[in-house]
Amino acid sequence: MRGKSLMIQGTASSVGKSVLCAALLRIMKQDGYRVAPFKAQNMALNSFVTRDGLEMGRAQVTQAQAAGMEPDIRMNPVLLKPTSDRRSQVIVNGRVAGTMTAMEYHNYKPALRENIRKTYRSLEDAVDCVVIEGAGSPAEINLRSGDIVNMSMAECADAPVLLVGDINLGGVFASLLGTMMLLAEDERARVKGVIINKFRGDVQILEPGLRMLEERIHVPVLGVVPWMDVELEDEDSVTERFERRSGAGDLDVAVVKLRHISNFTDFQSLALQPGVKVRYAQTAKDLESADLIVLPGTKNTIEDLIDLRSRGVDAAIVRHARRGGMVAGVCGGYQMLGRALRDPEHVESRVPELAGLDLLDMEVVFEKEKRTAQASGVVDCPPCWLAEANGTVVDGYEIHAGRNLLGETAVPWLKIDGRTDGIMNAGHNVLGSYLHGLFDDGQLFAAIARRLRAQKGVSGEEHAPVSFEDFREREFDRIAAIVRASLDMDAIYRIVRGEV
């Protein structure tokens, strides 16, 4: 393969660029090429920590896994993590560069261009082809001068572009035609094909429209990809997952929907486990029937706890725990379970101190230095229902700014490198940890599920835990097969080689 890049851009956000990139990367890997993903700038609260302790967007991690590559910070040099409606933490090359308003970041962008160019070139030199993902739409004419992720990135990489439209939204022909009309002449010349995504129905019905579109934009339609129910990790909190139940069975897991929810991909593996249904809860009433309440990570622990109190959700969580119901917290959700949250340096909030849910005997002190590291936890707890899992190794990663001060009644249950990470309460029904990925291999949750079923008096056939990694590999192959059958891959390879 002589060509070094292929870029996927869309007519809008959420048209399916990330999934199509993952599918194309898996197809190219299957065809014997060494390929890697790239996105110059990502805005997401779902992040990951590399082996080097550097932070990057979850979408490019998923795409790297589809390509069979180790996640590498070069695949996502700039990550924006919103901390409020107006400010974002800016992460450059895996490290925090500061927290900025939209205008401050706009003024900072020119300084990023050379860094992005060098980072991309380094990645490109290491592989046969880079599949580059754009963001939003390249036709946002008010943002063109500050663009670092769409057509300016295509120019930097000298990449051919495939333009994707989402027919499920309606108006796909108008969005594709309108986008092409709003591009500059040299930008239009980079678009070598269009893809219609998320189609439900008979493709023959579309044929007249496809031919008319080609006549108008003078670019071929490379295929129509059907609607795919994809169970890969979501890029960010703009997801349909919050509105539906996943999985089915006798155990009801309610994940509390936080305003600044982050790394909620931690819980996608739960719906794969036998007899488990997972849903996202926004009100106190939503928690009433839950067997397990999960408090997820958040980019702003204090502000989100204040929001939970304003909705009465905090009281519902406490009532559930006081009745003996099980509660689990991860990262920011873990911090909420303690007695108090202290932020003297205003790392997360303007509020210097806030009472926690008082379900775990600990206080949290926020510090400016954020811990980012891959880690392996080992279950190690005193005699209780979880002791059956002692010695179980849980692989994951840490991303947090808080430091825990443990009280006398805190019961350690998870250790990382010999230090206590996770604790539970004296009643052994409330537990938390900083470790993202706790449930991915299914081993730890299998012990929790047995405890929950014992509490309910439900007996059932034992099933082996489902590994999210194994499921993800099957999902990559499934979507790759669908996309391969839907697109003209010979034409796409010709585009990559520069023959079109």
Can you tag this structure with a few keywords?
alpha/beta; 500 residues; single chain; 26 strands
Number of helices: 13
Which class do the helix and strand fractions yield? Answer: alpha/beta
Percent strand equals 25-35%
Mean pLDDT: 93
Could you list the spans in which at least 5 consecutive residues all have pLDDT below 50? none
Rg, alpha carbons: 24 Å
Report the sheet with the most strands, covering strand number, pairing sense and barrel closure.
Answer: 12 strands, mixed
Structure summary, number of beta strands: 26
End-to-end gap: 14 Å
The outline comes out as globular
Helical residue percent band: 25-40%
Detailed description of the structure:
The protein is an alpha/beta fold and 500 residues long. It has helices spanning 17-30, 58-67, 102-124, 151-157, 172-182, 185-190, 207-217, 301-310, 313-322, 332-336, 443-456, 468-486, 489-496; strands spanning 5-10, 35-38, 41-43, 47-49, 55-57, 78-82, 87-92, 95-101, 129-133, 161-166, 191-199, 221-226, 246-247, 251-256, 261-262, 276-281, 292-295, 297-298, 326-330, 340-342, 353-355, 362-379, 393-406, 411-416, 419-424, 430-433. Strands 13, 14, 16, 17, 19, 20, 21, 22, 23, 24, 25 and 26 form a twelve-stranded mixed β-sheet that branches. Helix 7 links the parallel strand 11 (191-199) and strand 12. It is globular. The relative contact order is 0.12.
